[in-house]
Amino acid sequence: MLRIENLVMRFGGVVACNDFSAEIKKGQIVGLIGPNGAGKTTIFNVVTGVYKPTSGQILFNPTGDQQHRLTGLSPDKIAQLGVCRTFQNIRLFGELTVLENVFIGNHLRVKSDVFSTVLRLPHYAAEEKRMYEKSLYLLEKIGLQDTRNEKATSLPYGMQRRLEIARALATDPKLLLLDEPAAGMNPQETQDLIQFIREIKEEFDLTIFLIEHHMDVIMEISEKIYVLDHGILIAEGNPSEIQQNQKVVEAYLGVG
Amino acid sequence: MREKSKTQITLIILVLTALGLFLANRYLDPYKIRIINLSGIYVTLGLSMNLINGMTGMFSLGHAGFMAIGAYTVGILTMPVTMKEMNFFMQPIVPFLANVEWGFLPALFAAGLIAAFFGILIGAPVLRLTDDYLAIATLGFAEIIRVVFTNTQSLTNGALGLKGIPNYTNIWWSWGVALVTVWFIWFLMKGTYGKAFLAIREDEIAARSMGINLFKHKVMSFAFGCFFAGVAGGLMAGMLGTIDPNMFRITLTFNILLIVVLGGLGQIGGTIISAVIVTVMMEALRFLDEAMDLGFVQIKGIPGMRMVVFSIILIIVVIIREKGLVRRPKGRELTYAKN
Ligand SMILES: Nc1ncnc2c1ncn2[C@@H]1O[C@H](COP(=O)(O)OP(=O)(O)O)[C@@H](O)[C@H]1O
Ligand SMILES: [Mg+2]
After folding, report:
1. Counts of helices then strands in chain B (DSSP H, E)
2. CB contact under 8 A, A95 and B202
3. Which one, A90, A121, B84, B217, has least CB within 10 Å?
4. From the centroid of its chain, how far is CA A215?
5. From A126, which residue of chain B is nearest by alpha-carbon distance?
6. From ligand 2's centre to the CA of A211, what distance in Å?
7. What's the CATH number for B2-320?
8. Domain definitions of chain B by residue range
């Protein structure tokens, strides 16, 4: 589904990511961990086209028979191909309502042109009805149907994170990138989130790439984990391999 | 239920407005009717700028320029052939325009389309950059277009301007166009493209990551705004009958900006109300520009005093609340088209 090859991302003198390669297969949940500033978010930003990498390439193959080169594409093109994300520092459309946020996620799939939307032509009306119902369904899934007309930023932190996931789901992604979805959540909320991620993966037939600080979350749901430290891949493997890896333990304890 | 009562209220407002306009048209003197016309035109102008600046979060200062294009388009296209010969005595008008005499509606359309065309021409290169460039480019464009119109003698009659443009604009035209603008922007913003504009205003990075092509949507919003600015310019020409390049100075853009800021960025209702209030105030405060005799002291007329007062109002409004007079109601329902 996604292949990252020898990715290098430099910001001036800072090498945020150095020769990183990874492979994510269809239907997997893959974790990406590492201490603060390791370069995890940078990798998401490069995959989604927010940054152009210094070198290396990223290949996306959603159906198994059509290879897309994501490197060089704009973020909106990448989203249209079926890669969508959430943000570590929540980026909702703050002044807009909860429902509007999710509704906007549908826009990239709209087939009607702008004039049919203004004239409310029947084919647009039908399209809009579908988008609206889908948005409501997604809000129901995250338990926000009752606050759908509240301003997005008026929600508690944990709910805003869930809303970001719902907004991303509205774009019909094949690959979903979650940047620290459990940040700021209490243990109960975190457990619910794990359940939720599993659920949407099944229901929407997703592949998930996940950054997380909560080790319990990562260890519980990832099939495969990449560990990054100072921009360098120090380990990869399944959860039990990672837990026993000496380098990982050192990176996390700050030794060496 | 709620939808239904909303529709009823809208209908009642429409009928009352039409009735009010009808009575005004019948019983008011020409000066007052002219203010009503001007209000309608400023509603269109305010909304078109609010679409760009308030709803899509771009910063354009080019409205006067796009109005100029619209005004000249309507002036040239609707003016009778003999009147054109009289106007263009310094240099004859270019042959392909010498014999055209269009009706008002097609001329207004052309005004909007040509303004939108220039909007795209100016906007497309700079909208790829950050928004500060749009402000600079549109401001420059609006000034340049005046210089250009002053010098294209055989197209615009240069500094002499155009006289004897048919007075097609009446209450029905000015408010009819205002109504169409309200309707257009209302449904635009209800639909998914309008929501995408709002998303861009709120957070460009998030909007892009949700698959919204920033450039395409910005150009679209900007072109719509320019279209209505051009149409409003055309209405202005049809109302005044006389236009010249110097009418379209930056102060004109500034008036519209005042309407937008007072009415509230992103607010349709607020913009309508503030357009009417500002237009009426603009006339009511005309005495500020004239000489005043207060009995014990005489003040010589200071032209531009009105604008000073308006500038101060604008600054105060911007300082006390950045969101204008009408707040966006919390918990607005997002509804879908029922078919
Ligand atoms: N836009 C940027 N400009 C300069 N440096 C950046 C930028 N984005 C990230 N960095 C740097 O790259 C490194 C990795 O950051 P990041 O990917 O956010 O880490 P993580 O998500 O693993 O905590 C940090 O040293 C950070 O300062
Ligand atoms: Mg990060």
Report:
1. 15, 4
2. yes
3. A121
4. 18
5. B339
6. 8
7. 1.10.3470
8. 2-320
With 80 as the cut, is the pLDDT of residue A7 above it?
A: yes
Chain B CA closest to residue A146: B331
Q: What is the rounded CA–CA span in Å between residue B294 and residue B287? A: 12
| Per-residue model confidence as pLDDT tens digits over A159-218 | 999 999 999 999 999 999 999 999 888 888 889 899 999 999 999 999 999 999 888 888
ipTM: 0.93
Q: Where are the alpha helices (DSSP H) in A82-156?
A: 98-105, 114-118, 122-141
Report pLDDT for B303.
Answer: 73
Q: What is the end-to-end Cα distance of chain A in Å, rounded?
A: 35
Three-state secondary-structure class, residue B102: coil
Q: Give the model's pLDDT for residue A119.
A: 94
Nearest CA to ligand 1 atom 6: A11
Atom of ligand 1 nearest to the CA of A88: 21
Name the residue of A10, A42, A48 to mutate for ligand 1: max ligand atoms within 8 A of Cβ.
A42
Give the C-alpha distances (Å, rounded to integers) separating B133 from A187, B58, B229, B256, B257.
48, 10, 20, 20, 18
Q: A132 to chain B: nearest residue by CA? A: B336
With a cut of 50, list the residues of chain B below it in pLDDT: 1, 324-339
Q: Given this model, what pLDDT does residue B298 score?
A: 72
Q: How far apart are CA B271 and CA B243, in angstroms?
A: 26
| Distance from C-alpha of B274 to C-alpha of A22, rounded to nearest angstrom | 57
Output the residue whose Cα is nearest ligand 1's atom 27.
Answer: A37
CA dihedral A232, A236, A241, A245 (to 10 degrees): -10
| A36 CA to centre of ligand 1 in angstroms | 9
Question: Alpha-carbon distance B260 to B63, whole Å?
Answer: 12
Q: What does the alpha-carbon distance between residue A154 and residue A157 come to, in Å, rounded to a whole number?
A: 9
pLDDT in tens, A11-31: 888 888 999 999 999 999 999
Question: What pLDDT, in 10s, does the model give residues A96-129?
Answer: 999 999 999 999 999 999 999 999 999 999 999 9
Residue with the smallest CA separation from ligand 1 atom 9 is A42
Tokens standing for residue B61:
């200062």
Strand partners, A225: A31, A237
Produce one character per residue of A195-216: b if its CB has 16 or more CB atoms within 10 Å, e if not: ebbeebbeeeebbbbbbbebee
Nearest to A58 by CA among A23, A10, A14, A15: A23
Reading phi first (left if > 0) and then psi (alpha if -120 to 50, else beta), residue A34 is in: left
